[in-house]
Design a protein that fits this description.
The complex is a heterodimer of chains A (503) and B (327).
Chain A: E1 7-16, E2 19-29, E3 34-38, H1 45-52, E4 60-65, E5 68-69, H2 75-80, E6 83-86, H3 98-102, H4 118-131, H5 147-160, E7 165-169, H6 177-192, E8 196-200, H7 204-210, E9 213-218, E10 221-227, H8 233-241, E11 260-269, E12 273-281, E13 285-290, H9 296-303, E14 311-316, E15 319-321, H10 326-331, E16 334-337, H11 341-345, H12 352-357, E17 365-366, E18 370-371, H13 373-386, H14 403-417, E19 421-425, H15 433-448, E20 452-456, H16 460-466, E21 469-474, E22 477-483, H17 489-496
Chain B: H1 2-8, H2 11-14, H3 17-33, H4 40-65, H5 73-90, H6 95-118, H7 124-143, E1 148-149, H8 156-161, E2 165-166, E3 175-176, H9 178-196, H10 198-215, H11 220-246, E4 248-249, H12 257-267, H13 279-298, H14 303-326
Antiparallel strand pairs in B: 1-4, 2-3
Helix pairs in contact in B: 3-13, 4-9, 4-10, 4-11, 4-12, 4-13, 5-6, 5-7, 5-11, 6-7, 6-11, 9-10, 10-11, 12-13, 12-14, 13-14
The chains are: A alpha/beta (503), B mainly alpha (327).
Bound molecules: adenosine-5'-triphosphate and magnesium ion (MG).
Chain lengths: 503, 327
């Protein structure tokens, strides 16, 4: 053996009811390397890592740590063996403080081991957060923090275990560029200390920046492992999807001749939104760019009636509409695909079919009361096919779908609703490249059909590639507007950091 | 002592200012409406009647913060009282041992509820409803459906009704019954457990996001059982208080107390969806309930209407809490 392996996983199998999630999966990890794990949504990446971290128990196969076979059944056992994990979904207790979250299960104790040592708890957390350069008071309640900060607290928590094996399942999904840089700096430090890191992400550029090797999985199976240095993106992508991808090219079109579908005038909401004005035309894709917290989601939520506004007018096809609650917006033909699908977009305890028809249930009723089974099933089937939603059946509960497939169900739900104006808020977050391209194509097709689309995304290449026009926001106000022809990453970033002189 | 006071008035407790203000307001209104209300012996009788529901409220507060519910506390209180009668009256154990044994009975019953909820994954509502009925039946079986009297056992009665804090030299009539002292003692100890110990931390953690606690490597099931057991033991204290006040264990009594206790917790700002609540809030909630009943009685409002008003107060209080939270 050329190098000693920290972890070696061989021929691992794991089934859930109706899903054979891992079929002979393989993986290994060397000390001091970052090993990226790639694959489409539902490929089994999270499942494989959850087996390693003691959250799921494998059906068969071997897991070796330092060459010794191990058999882990609880997260606690994994922690003791030095295996830490940052989960894909945030796992935080909103009612507890940042410090209490970080040290849950390992609270420092004072006085006779009976009482908690709150001071040490806060001090230790402050140190961890300072190391990550995160500006969070250890004593603030976690529920009140932004998703990005919550994610940083999760990362701090995982680091505090001083694990030898650290699994990061899409840690950057909610982070901005500066935060990602900090994370990568920490990862390099950990590497130097000999920690082995498993890095799961759908962001291809991160792969090149941080990883040493890449392993690709498809449909629960091992496809292959490459040295990142030698690998090309195209190679990795085709290993993931099993076919080469068509690149989507934007048609530079001017939409100014089209009738205005939505006009927003003088929208204000406290400090979050200040004097927002924009027009959206039929058939147009209007990109909203800006840093995390710039107020893009707030615009969408305000127009959709999800948050109350202080002032402002909304005109749909030239007619003023009053939007007080989301129902008003839906009736005016506005749909909103929320960025936080778990909290606002889906009923996780219900199945694919029920979620798909959720916003249009009125169309599937006999006598306004009884559900029409067959049409619901047909529609659900149609969207499962057109969006290639990976699910064993329509009756699968949403919580058992992988993150990316959940997102596709949200899209299906609003497509079915047939809105003329659609707000896509981070539609490709946590979605694999293959599915991303499908979603781009979908959004573009919708625009071609005459729908007016607002597309909010933190990934600049995505905004640039899709939008006909781009609105840039910073700190609650619109700082500029660029046509597709004028827009470049640099210009957008300039506008996105254009703070008002008054501040 | 300083930390205890700081504890009772921590940031979380400050949210309960609203409840406290309404309590004061109620007292002022009743005092204005009836000269009999603000009499020392009436105030003491309010405190005495709050003690039992208050202690039960504290017990259920732990369970509710985990996101659960405990319907068994009312009849379990009776069962522990009956068992105290058995231990002291039939087995002739010394009173202190009988008291401990009654608390142990509560803890065992709580453990069983906890196991049903944590290990067998029964919904807390169902598991504790079962225990509620079992406890009720067992109380009747063990006592032969007849009250067990403690009259022979001197001292038992004074656990509740005696008084070692006598301020009558300062204010005439200010003799605090032991039951009230015990009630506040339970409150202080519980508040410390809830805010300063690991058990308290997990109580909030479970109610906030049980899965996250589990994934952090905590043995969630074991702690849940411990929390239900603690609640059971506190219920045992309520059993002692009520039986010593009546100087007898009344096997038919008990059902309905659980709802008063839950109402007290909820009025005091304990969230039924878990993760939020304070002991001080529950204590204030219990006082609001008993001041209301006492005041209406003094104003000669018929009992039926007292119940109606209590119901309105519960709804109103929780709505106020929701409004406060929205801000
Ligand atoms: N608890 C569960 N019960 C049933 N099925 C599950 C469960 N967890 C995962 N699955 C299924 O197992 C398969 C693999 O899912 P997994 O979450 O590992 O995918 P993934 O590669 O992490 O995808 P993503 O990139 O979308 O996060 C999917 O088909 C998913 O629906
Ligand atoms: Mg995953």
């Amino acid at each position: 053996m050329p190098e000693s392996l920290l972890v070696r996983i061989e021929d691992l199998h794991k089934s859930f009811p109706g899903v054979h999630a891992l079929k002979g999966a393989r993986f290994d990890l060397r000390p001091g390397e970052v090993h990226a794990l790639m694959g489409e949504n539902g490929a089994g990446k999270s499942t494989l890592m959850k087996v390693l971290a003691g959250i799921y128990t494998r059906d068969s196969g071997t897991v070796l740590l330092d060459g010794q076979p191990i058999d882990i059944h609880t997260p606690h056992q994994a922690q003791k063996l030095g295996i830490g994990i940052i989960h894909q979904e945030l796992n935080l207790m909103n009612h507890l403080t940042a410090a209490q979250n970080v040290f849950i299960g390992r609270e420092p104790k004072g006085l006779m081991g009976l009482f908690l040592d709150e001071k040490k708890l806060n001090d230790d957390t402050a140190k961890l957060l300072a190391m990550l350069k995160v500006d969070v008071d250890p004593k603030t309640l976690i529920g009140g923090l932004t998703v990005a900060k919550q994610q940083m607290v999760e990362i701090a928590k995982a680091l505090s275990f001083e694990s030898r094996v650290l699994i990061m399942d899409e840690p950057t999904a909610a982070l901005n560029d500066a935060e990602i840089d900090e994370l990568f700096r920490i990862i390099r430090e950990l590497k130097a200390k000999g920690v082995g890191i498993v890095y799961i992400s759908h962001k291809m550029d991160e792969l090149k920046r941080i990883s040493d090797r890449v392993t690709v999985m498809r449909d629960g199976e091992y496809v292959g492992t490459l040295n990142t240095q030698e690998a090309t993106m195209e190679q990795v992508i085709s290993m993931m999807v099993g076919r080469p991808l068509q690149n989507y090219v934007r048609k530079d079109q001017n939409m100014d001749a089209n009738p205005v579908a939505l006009e927003v005038k003088g929208l204000n909401r406290g400090r979050a939104l200040r004097d927002i004005n924009f027009k959206l035309r039929q058939g147009e894709i209007l990109g909203f760019a800006g840093l995390m917290g710039a107020g893009r989601t707030e615009v969408a939520r305000a127009v959709f009636g999800a948050d109350p506004v202080d002032s402002g007018e909304i005109l749909v096809k030239g007619k003023k509409v009053t939007v007080k609650i989301p129902r008003d917006a839906v009736q005016a033909g506005i749909g909103y695909l929320s960025e936080d699908r778990k909290r606002y977009g889906l009923a996780l305890g219900m199945d694919v079919q029920a979620n798909t028809v959720m916003a249009t249930i009125g169309r599937f009723l006999h006598l306004g009361t009884f559900l029409k089974k067959k049409p619901m099933a047909d529609v659900a089937e149609k969207y499962i096919n057109t969006l290639s939603i990976k699910t064993p059946s329509q009756e699968q509960l949403l919580k058992f779908l992988s993150g990316g497939n959940q997102q596709k169900v949200v899209i299906a739900k609003w497509l079915l609703r047939d809105c003329d104006i659609l707000f896509f808020d981070e539609p490709t977050r946590g979605i694999d490249v293959g599915a991303k391209f499908e979603i781009y194509k979908l959004i573009q097709d919708l625009a071609t059909q005459g729908k007016a689309i607002v597309m909010i995304s933190s990934e600049l290449p995505e905004v640039l590639r899709l939008s006909h026009r781009i609105v840039v926001m910073c700190e609650g106000r619109i700082t500029g507007e660029l046509s597709a022809a004028e827009a470049t990453q640099e210009r957008i970033m300039h506008l996105a950091t254009l703070r008002s002189a008054a501040m | 002592m300083n930390t205890v006071i700081k504890n009772l008035f921590s940031a979380k407790a400050r949210q309960k200012v609203l409840a406290f203000a309404s309590l004061v307001l109620m007292i002022v209104i009743f005092a204005v409406l009836s000269p009999n209300f603000f009499q020392m012996d009436n105030l003491i009788s309010i405190m005495l009647s709050t003690a039992v529901t208050g202690v039960l409220g504290i017990a259920v507060t732990f369970v509710i913060i985990t996101g659960g519910i405990d319907l068994a506390i009312g009849t379990l209180m009776t069962l522990t009282a009956v068992m105290a009668g058995v231990f002291i009256g039939y087995w002739n154990l010394p009173i202190w041992l009988g008291v401990l044994a009654a608390m142990a009975t509560g803890a065992v019953a709580g453990t069983i509820s906890g196991v049903l909820v944590a290990k067998l994954k029964l919904p807390p509502f169902i598991a504790t409803m079962g225990i509620m009925m079992i406890a009720k039946g067992l109380s009747l079986v063990i006592s032969g459906a007849k009250p067990i009297y403690f009259t022979k056992y001197e001292g038992y009665n004074s656990i509740s009704n005696g008084s070692f804090i006598d301020f009558s030299f300062l204010v005439p009539g200010l003799i605090i019954p032991n039951a009230v002292v015990i009630f506040f003692g339970v409150g202080i100890v519980s508040s410390i457990i809830l805010n300063k110990t690991v058990l308290g931390r997990y109580t909030f953690g479970l109610g906030s996001n049980e899965e996250a606690v589990r994934l952090s490597g905590v043995n969630v099931d074991r702690w849940k059982v411990a929390i239900y057991a603690l609640a059971g033991a506190i219920v045992g204290i309520a059993g002692i208080l009520i039986s010593s006040r009546l100087n007898s264990a009344q096997p038919a009594l008990g059902q309905g107390y659980e709802l008063d206790a839950i109402a007290a917790a909820v009025i005091g700002g304990v969230s039924l969806s878990g993760g939020e609540g304070t002991i001080l809030g529950t204590i204030i909630g219990a006082f609001i309930m008993s001041v209301l009943i006492n005041g209406l009685r003094i104003l000669s409002v018929p009992q039926e209407w007292q119940t109606v008003v209590s119901g309105l107060i519960v709804i109103f209080a929780v709505y106020m809490d929701i409004l406060r939270r929205r801000k």
